[in-house]
Specification:
- This protein is an alpha/beta fold and 681 residues long.
- It is built from 26 helices and 23 strands.
- The strands form four sheets. The chain has a six-stranded mixed β-sheet.
- Helix 15 packs antiparallel against helix 20 and helix 20 packs across helix 22.
- It is elongated and about 135 Å long.
- The model is unreliable at 1-5 (pLDDT under 50).
């Protein structure tokens, strides 16, 4: 029995429409016959003729109409297939496993395979993975094939919605979904886009870190020669990149280069930083630079603002380094030289006067350090508290977790009739006191995420930051006053200097002097690390104010459990790459294992041949890394790779969601990368 062509939908209605009109004419004839027989007779004749013609078309010409429609659809499908096959854009169809079912001529020619090939897309384009196919989502993938760049657009088609594909693929396709693949050649587009990016302007600033000190170290008649040699070095480097450089001040330069040279500068890791140090005409001190660059801003002025932000960060991190701000991305280079301590206290005096002006306009001060506060943070907070009370302001120290490192010192203030009962508050109670007349002073930290109560930073409008750690890309950006000095040994040293300039006649009580003195002692490891002339001057000031060295030493002796844990960390240390000591510190039965871990890291440096030490301690499901070095390794850069920061010789990081073994592997990987790139020193 021959298959009959099934007619349905609008086409079926269209073919039946003459019959429907015939019925309507018959009804109309009957209605008119009821009114007028002659008129009905005439109309019935016409109706009869129409009905005969309609029946003839429906019964005898229907096959001819359908045959014409089938012929038209076949020709249309053939044209559709021809268009797809000869389409200039490469196009193909694959099954849900990624196997090619059909491809047009352009696609076949591009891949260099026969159009009947059933190769897998996963083999041809490694960027297409099983996971992408399993998700069945429309995606665009950028790939490279035969030295050309392409964009792969993958779109899924349900067969029930595309039955016409059977004409192209044949009737044997059984998959529920088919994958259509479009290839767009974007080689030229990417080339011109790269050319446009290469021609963009990059703004930069160069500051001489120690210009005055370097000039003072050479005899007067040769100072102009030193300046000329420095200018020549800078001009030579910028001119080699077809850039321009303009001297703004005696120790400040502005330069502009094309963006195409930035990659080369990064690969050379800003060779100018080391090159300028070779300038020596008898000067005892090498000249160091700080470089700030801004790029990919919306305007030239925004690039310049990026450069200013970068140079501020380079200086805030101690100088002798370059900072590149690429939109929201920030990169650091250099930072190998030890921070140079300024002999002048002009900056401390200026910041002290600015702090006093801010305090005089407020009624209440909240003083906050970092999480798991140490004695440096605690002592600095007490110094700010003494300043506030001397100016007749109410002040409170925000502290949530009291560690064993500060417990002995804190006990001297809790219950002491000389101090108010609400001297120490947790973050929740401190937040209840915030109003328009409240000022927040943050000490010993400049990263908002590791402050003791980060929520206060959003609640208080007037924020002051005093810190001695090198700045990272995460900073407290809404501070009205920021005093960050990486060369300072500790926050207590900075506060001790501010105390001497902020007002006359401020007298520190012995307990407060002990806390601040202890902060300096602990952060400098008994005046052996990051210690300068001003460190001893601050210690001398605190001694004159009543600090007792013996009393401080007794307060911070270890108990037996902590000493054994520290000794065990030293005993179990692994020497990696001959120079790095990596160990773990046990936390069982110890109230503040992070402090013990830091002490163990210091002790490991006493071993001959060890250039840097890293001790990992797990506390509250977070692994704390304490890194220490003497002078050969920049552990601050090491910890920045792990999301932390600190000083060149004292740094740390917090690792969440990893095991102890994974943390060890992460540290080793960072060491390997730094050794490979030459970043360790």
């Amino acid at each position: 029995m021959k298959d009959k062509v099934r007619v349905k939908g609008l086409l079926s209605i269209y073919l039946q429409w003459p019959l429907i009109l015939s019925v309507l004419l018959i009804i109309a004839t009957m209605v008119i016959g009821a009114l007028n027989l002659k008129a009905a007779a005439v109309l019935s004749a016409f109706t009869f003729v129409y009905v005969m013609i309609a029946l003839w078309i429906y019964l005898y010409q229907r096959k001819n109409v359908l045959a014409g429609l089938v012929e038209f659809s076949s020709e249309y499908a053939w044209i559709q297939k021809k268009l797809l096959s000869e389409m200039i854009q490469p196009y193909a169809i694959a099954d849900d496993k990624g196997r090619l079912l059909w491809m047009n001529g352009s696609f076949s020619e591009l891949l260099g395979v026969d159009h009947r090939s059933r190769k897998s897309l996963l083999t041809l384009f490694p960027e297409i993975t099983k996971e992408i196919l399993e998700k069945k989502e429309e995606v665009s993938i950028h790939t490279e094939y035969e030295m050309r760049n392409y964009r792969l657009d993958l779109k899924w088609v349900a067969l029930k919605d595309a039955s016409s594909l059977e004409i192209t693929l044949g009737a044997g396709v059984t998959e529920e979904y088919l994958l259509s693949i479009y290839l767009a050649d974007e080689t030229e587009v990417l080339h011109y886009k790269t050319e446009i990016d290469n021609q963009k302007m990059v703004a930069g600033l160069i500051y001489l870190d120690n210009y005055d000190e370097a000039l003072e170290s050479v005899e007067e008649v040769r100072r102009s020669l030193l300046t000329a040699l420095i200018d020549r070095k800078i001009n030579k480097h910028i001119s080699a990149m077809n850039g321009i450089v303009k001297k703004l001040e005696k120790d400040k330069y502005f330069f502009a280069i094309k963006q195409q040279y930035v990659a080369t500068i990064k690969e050379e890791r800003f060779a100018i930083l080391e090159d300028v140090k070779t300038v020596n005409i008898g000067n005892d001190m090498s000249v160091t630079l700080s470089i700030g660059m801004g790029m990919n801003g919306e305007t030239y002025s925004q690039n310049y603002e990026f450069a200013r932000t970068s140079i501020d960060m380079a200086l805030g991190r101690g100088g002798d380094q370059a900072v590149v701000k690429d939109g929201q991305k920030i990169q650091y280079f250099g930072g190998k030289a030890q921070q140079m301590e300024k002999s002048t206290r002009v900056k401390a005096r200026v910041k002290a006067h600015a702090l006093r002006e801010l305090m005089e306009n407020k009624d209440r001060l909240l003083i906050m350090g970092h999480k798991l506060a140490d004695i440096d943070s605690f002592g600095a907070a007490l110094g700010i508290y003494r300043i506030a009370t001397s100016l007749n302001k109410r002040a409170h120290i925000v502290i949530n977790d009291v560690t064993t490192s500060i417990r002995p010192m804190m006990d001297r203030f809790v219950g002491n009739p000389d101090y108010p009962e609400d001297l120490f508050l947790n973050g929740t109670k401190a937040a209840e006191l915030v109003d328009a007349s409240t000022m927040l002073v943050v000490v010993d930290v400049n990263r908002p995420s590791i402050t003791d109560t980060p929520a206060l930073l959003k609640m208080v409008k007037s924020i002051v930051v005093l810190d001695h750690h090198r700045q990272s890309s995460e900073i407290i950006d809404n501070a009205v006053l920021s005093y960050v000095e990486p060369y300072a040994s500790s926050a207590c040293e900075m506060v001790a200097e501010v105390l001497q300039y902020i007002a006359d006649g401020i007298r520190i009580r012995p307990a407060e002097a002990d806390a601040m003195y202890a902060g300096i002692v602990i952060d400098t490891t008994n005046f052996t690390n990051q210690t300068g002339v001003r460190t001893f001057e601050a210690a001398a000031f605190l001694r004159r104010s009543g600090a007792d060295v013996t009393r401080v030493r007794k307060l911070f002796r270890d108990n037996m459990a902590e000493y054994q844990a520290k000794a065990n960390a030293v005993r179990m240390a692994e020497v990696y790459r001959n120079d790095f000591a990596i160990s773990t510190c046990p936390a069982e039965g110890i109230a503040s294992p992070t402090i013990v871990g830091a002490q163990a890291a210091n002790d490991l440096l006493e071993i001959n041949g060890i250039k840097a030490s890293v001790v990992l301690t797990e506390y509250n499901h977070v692994i704390y890394a304490s890194a220490r070095s003497i002078d050969e390794v920049n552990v601050q850069v090491m910890m920045e790779h792990l999301g932390g920061g600190g000083h060149r010789a004292v740094a740390g990081a917090q690792l969440e969601g990893v095991s102890m073994e994974q943390a060890k592997d992460m540290v080793k990987k960072v060491i390997d990368e730094m050794l490979e790139k030459g970043e360790v020193s």
